[in-house]
Amino acid sequence: MEPNPSATCVTTGPTRPHTLTRYARTDSETGGASPLLRVDTLCSMVVLSEVHREASRKGEPMRHLMGVLVLLLCLTLVFGLVACGIADIVKDDVAPSTPTITKTTPDNDNTPTFSWNAATDDGTGVDHYEVNMDGGWIWLKAGDVTTYTWYAELSDGSHTFEVKAVDNARNAGTAASLTFTIDTTFPIISSVTVPSITETGCTIAWTTNEDTTCQVEYGTTAAYGTSQPASINFLCSYAYCHMINLTGLTADTTYHYRVRAIDSSGKETISRDYSFVTVPS
Ligand SMILES: [Ca+2]
Ligand SMILES: [Ca+2]
């Protein structure tokens, strides 16, 4: 018979990792019959023993007696299953291996999907995987799967996804983690001004709502033709300020210009067309 990890029952906690494991007989053993009875519900023995202990402590004789009878019945059933070869008691105190995570959806997907390679386990085998986001105090049971799509929309910024394998004896492996960044917003360009103009040059200033790499396109028509990166960039009050000094311009001439801003995730915003006139000579 081959052990069937998907139908096992943990009868004790991690400190005594003995697992009652159901075995699924092969077709040759069963003559093609369906797998044997599930024994998962026998986990309740642990609960019953606790009820029995509590009733005994409180001096409730009937409840105490019922607890003893049900516990004896369950024990008889368990040992009967073991004796018949339907189930077995397995010792397992070795945690599963650590998976390797891959993020399988495009960057900036705020409900990302992750996949990981199947963990290996000595003893009872991997029962399920648990996942976590940003160190949350609750680990979510993902099931016996190797892919998971996060259930809620994540905010822009840095996040850390973790996954760990848990075997049928409740041993949890070391978690694997993957840190990634989500940026769903395009830069906002505002406060575009020309604070100074001369015969042959000018200064253009503007702000963006996030850290960006900027450049100015300019020319004597709205087709521009020349591009130059911002030469001054600094963090100002609640914004990122940028400036550029244009030189070599022609006096008394109308120039068109626009600003391009690209954020760290490659999202680009292009401003509308602006214009200025250089000082006559
Ligand atoms: Ca194990
Ligand atoms: Ca952005």
Structural commentary:
The structure is a single chain. With 281 residues, this protein is mainly beta. It has three domains: 2-91, no CATH class; 101-182, Immunoglobulin-like (Sandwich), CATH 2.60.40; 189-277, Immunoglobulins (Immunoglobulin-like, Sandwich). Helices cover 15% and strands 42% of the residues. It is built from three helices and 19 strands. It has helices spanning 27-30, 44-58, 61-83; strands spanning 2-10, 18-24, 87-91, 101-103, 113-116, 126-133, 140-143, 147-149, 157-167, 176-182, 189-197, 202-208, 212-219, 226-229, 232-236, 239-246, 254-263, 268-270, 274-277. The strands form five sheets. Strands 13, 14, 17, 18 and 19 form a five-stranded antiparallel beta sheet that branches. A hairpin with a 6-residue loop joins strand 13 (212-219) and strand 14 (226-229). The termini are far apart. Mean pLDDT is 82; it is low at 1-17 and 22-41. The protein binds calcium ion (2 copies). One calcium ion (CA) binds at residues 183, 185, 187, 210, 263, 265, 267.
